[in-house]
Write a structure and sequence with these properties.
CATH topology of the largest domain: Rossmann fold
Strand content: 15-25%
CATH class of the largest domain: Alpha Beta
Length: 444
């Protein structure tokens, strides 16, 4: 007996998801949430993972290969590092293999296997990190699926998991119910898709899908593949936040953090609640209940992407002076000069994606920026400041208070991270993307 749902396998053989053209590897690199090594190191490995000496990652249910390719590209030059791709769909795997071939990636092992077979597959070994995006909610038993992933996780290892959110997909689940009524006993995937297109073209403005079409536009982005995955999937489970925590903790894991910064911030009561009395009530609850309240209040969070760890508190610590603070995703310049010429003035940091944050300078913010270069440790930065100020009343503790105030703002968007001094500087996404373009240009 096969250890998977046959209709699910049939779907992904006929419609590999997400839709990808391997030739696009020559001009771009798809990044995936929960798979950026810089962020992963901060949230899951205390900032101390070097990703060398046999670091192993499993992409469980790798589909057409987005996470596998992104991880393998980042680990390309890491000694002994390996990415293992596993999926039940031959068609999906063929696309992932071709993407890897075009990139010249040789650090990937491809296996065709169901997640539920992992506990008995001793030949797979154990993994430092397991990523599983958009898969566990399609299993007949999601609990068994998460347990299977836990069975191949090393002690001290971590996971990146994406499952569907309950409230943000309200319209999608109504549409799935509608399509089951419309399609009845119809077995042809092509005819089901044709019917779904007919229904979508008939939706009035009052329909939930029509009102929130921008939340999950896969049917517009991926065509037939998107229609089927979104509206016609044979098995689709969703989680609210209390259920998500319970599901993860049942396996002896800890939900470390939500990986998508925009939605993580939406779960912060201060983002939307303006009534101070109400805010005080909500903030009095533990973090789980706060986020449960905010998920319903916000209403549009349609998937949960989280880090889960076998360790209770695996984040990097700001109290370790051997940590190196560095900017991530942004490259601000001349901040020290700006503050020197504009004392006390707010500093606004802009990102190409439209986000911005504002820093209100503290007494030593300017001096911190003077030496914050992505290479110096806190200890080295503070030593330089002490030499400049020659004031014995300015202690490391005072300097760290100012840094923490600034860091708490940056970390909301993951624009600043920390790593241990033993970890070499790693390329940012734009550097990884430009590498393939440069190689392609040279080859031409």
């Amino acid at each position: 007996m096969e250890n998977f749902l046959q209709p699910v396998k049939d779907q992904y053989e006929a419609y590999p998801y997400p839709q990808r053209n391997p030739k696009d590897e020559l001009k771009m690199l798809w990044s995936t949430y929960g798979c950026n090594l810089l962020e992963m190191n901060y949230y899951c490995f205390g900032g101390k993972e070097t990703f060398q000496n046999g670091f192993r990652v499993l992409d469980a249910g790798g589909g057409t290969g987005d996470s596998t390719i992104f991880l393998a590209e980042q680990l390309r030059d890491m000694k002994g590092a390996e990415v293992v791709y596993a999926d039940i769909s031959t068609a999906s795997m063929d696309i992932a293999k071709e993407r890897a071939r075009i990139r010249g990636l040789t650090n990937i092992t491809f296996i065709q296997k169901s997640i539920l077979d992992f506990p008995k597959a001793k030949e797979m070994g154990k993994f430092d990190y397991v990523t599983c995006s958009g898969v566990l909610h399609h299993l007949e038993d999601s609990d068994a699926g998460l347990a299977a992933l836990k069975s191949v996780l090393k002690e001290g290892g971590a996971m990146g998991i994406m499952v569907y959110g309950k409230y943000g997909r309200t319209g999608i689940y109504q549409m799935q119910d509608l399509m089951r009524l419309v399609n009845g006993d119809e077995e042809s995937m092509a005819k089901k898709i044709a019917n779904a297109k007919g229904v979508v073209s008939s939706l009035p403005a009052s329909n939930w899908v029509k009102m929130a079409e921008n939340l999950a536009p896969d049917h517009k982005t991926f065509g037939d593949i998107g229609y089927y995955d979104l509206f016609l999937h044979s098995h689709d489970r969703c989680f609210d936040i209390p259920g998500l925590y319970t599901w993860i903790e049942k396996q002896g894991l800890h939900l470390t953090e939500f990986a998508i910064t925009e939605w993580r911030n939406m779960l912060d009561p201060e983002m939307f609640i303006k009534d101070q009395n109400l805010l005080k009530i909500v903030k009095s609850y533990d973090i789980k209940k706060q986020r449960a309240i905010m998920e319903i209040l916000v209403g549009n969070i349609f998937k949960h992407t989280v880090y889960a760890s076998s360790m209770e508190n695996p984040k990097a610590s700001l109290d370790d002076l051997d940590m190196v603070p560095f900017f991530h995703g942004i490259s601000p310049s001349n901040v020290y000069e700006f503050m020197e010429n504009n004392p006390g003035r707010q500093i606004i940091f802009n990102h190409k994606n439209g986000h911005k944050i504002t820093i209100n300078p503290q007494p030593y913010t300017k001096m911190i920026f003077k030496y914050l270069d992505g290479n110096r440790t806190f200890k080295e930065i503070f030593e330089q400041i002490h030499q400049d100020l020659k004031d014995e009343t300015v202690t490391d503790e005072k300097l760290m208070v100012d840094f923490k105030s600034m860091f708490e703002t940056f970390i909301k968007l993951d624009w600043m991270l920390i790593r241990h001094k033993s970890v070499s500087k790693m390329p940012e996404l734009n550097e990884l993307q430009s590498r393939m373009i440069k190689l392609n240009t040279q080859a031409a």
